[in-house]
Write a structure and sequence with these properties.
386 residues; mainly alpha; four-stranded antiparallel sheet; 17 helices; 5% strand; globular
């Protein structure tokens, strides 16, 4: 997904869930910041690099695709952008390594999604809500792809077919020029360069499918590398609408209106008064829907929605003393990000899967020497005292 959904649509969902304008902005900013919080940025802010929620292209190029490098990549992308749908997924063929990669395929309504939303409530900050909403939304947009480099999982057959609004179909053409925008009229889309190396970063996530998963309007059929020669139908307008309704449901839980968060539940009744306009935005053929979502958000709340600006909260974090940093906007985001990454990495490791590295359950084992995670322990102590 892109800024149009992670920022503006998330604001709308938060406001419908009952959050105030200012609270909704905090949640929306945090959801979008997940796509910007790189180790490079954190280093510039002198913040813990372990809180990185994305990796820049230049960072990825510098990461060796040996075991340690692959684990570093997987921890970030599986925790925040390609949440595994079923860590125990059964598959009848393939090596142990193949099964481990297969079980990292992203999908909605898995156990890890429930854990993500529950963790946001336990963490208690609006920043944690935003992080969880980014993860939730991406489980719909990025389903069928995995947050680890793998040609055998993430490669896309060349015979991708787009289903146009009138029901007709046409083949898609992929090119590998990063500077060329997608041509919606001609059905020409940019994707990562094909590379036969199993662990090439070109085979990370949905790179081989380009931005198709990020566009709310598109419907297409394709054959994934793992699918056993079975075509997959991706109906993005339907999936994005489910994602929106599920965000509203999740945030009503996070506000305390529900006692539990359950998978595969959606607040369609709450969203119903605005269903027509939301579906119109989702179905509109455009590369960037920010303007439409922003107009709807301002109509919804009657407030002005500022454009997302990455530098908004940086000065407050940098100038705060070490004790106060955790109470700044970015400080709370950092704690939420580290908690989410720790939870997902622990779940993957506990399932017998080593692709995200070795993890320690802090609740059972306590601190084990990873300096950047000491803040999590201290934050947990403060919550218990409060």
């Amino acid at each position: 997904m892109q800024e149009d959904f992670h920022y503006y649509a998330t604001y709308c969902a938060a406001y419908m869930a009952g959050y105030t304008h200012d609270e909704s902005l905090t949640i929306a900013y945090s959801a979008q910041f997940v796509d910007w919080c790189s180790a490079t940025l954190l280093s510039e802010l002198r913040a813990p690099r372990a809180a990185a929620t994305t990796q820049l292209q230049l960072e990825l190029l510098d990461i060796p695709t040996d075991l340690i490098g692959l684990q570093d990549i997987t921890r970030v992308w599986s925790s925040f952008h390609f949440l595994p749908g079923n860590l125990q997924a059964d598959i009848r063929y393939g090596s142990k390594r193949y099964r481990q990669i297969y079980r990292l395929i992203c999908g909605p309504n898995g156990e890890l999604l429930v854990s993500t939303v529950e963790l946001a409530r336990k963490t208690g900050s609006l920043q944690a809500v935003g992080v969880a909403m980014h993860v939730l939304a991406d489980t719909w947009a990025h389903r069928y792809f995995a947050g680890t480099p793998s040609q055998v999982i993430n490669n896309v057959d060349n015979r991708v077919v787009e289903i146009l609004p009138d029901g007709t179909e046409r083949p898609m053409t992929f090119r590998h020029s990063a500077s060329a925008p997608d041509d919606l009229d001609q059905g020409i889309y940019t994707s990562s360069l094909g590379y036969t190396g199993e662990h090439s970063i070109m085979n990370l996530g949905h790179g081989r499918a380009g931005h198709l998963p990020d566009y709310s309007f598109i419907r297409y059929r394709y054959m994934p590398a793992w699918g056993g020669y079975t075509e997959i139908l991706k109906d993005n307008p339907a999936d994005y609408y489910r994602a929106f309704c599920q965000m509203v449901y999740a945030m009503r839980y996070l506000r305390g209106e529900r006692e539990a968060f359950e998978a595969d539940r959606y607040d369609t009744d709450v969203v119903a008064p605005w269903e027509t306009v939301i579906r119109e935005i989702l179905e509109k053929r455009q590369i960037n829907a920010c303007a439409d979502w922003k107009a709807f958000a301002e109509q919804l709340s009657g407030e002005t929605i500022p454009d997302f600006a990455i530098e908004t909260y940086q000065e407050a974090y940098v100038t705060a003393d070490e004790v106060a940093k955790s109470d700044t906007f970015l400080g709370r985001f950092i704690l939420a990000a580290m908690a989410q990454k720790s939870m997902v990495t622990q779940a993957i490791f506990s399932s017998g899967n080593w692709l995200a590295g070795v993890s320690v359950d802090f609740r059972q084992k306590g601190f084990r020497g990873i300096r950047d995670y000491r803040a999590l322990i201290e934050a947990a102590k403060r919550r218990r005292k409060a």
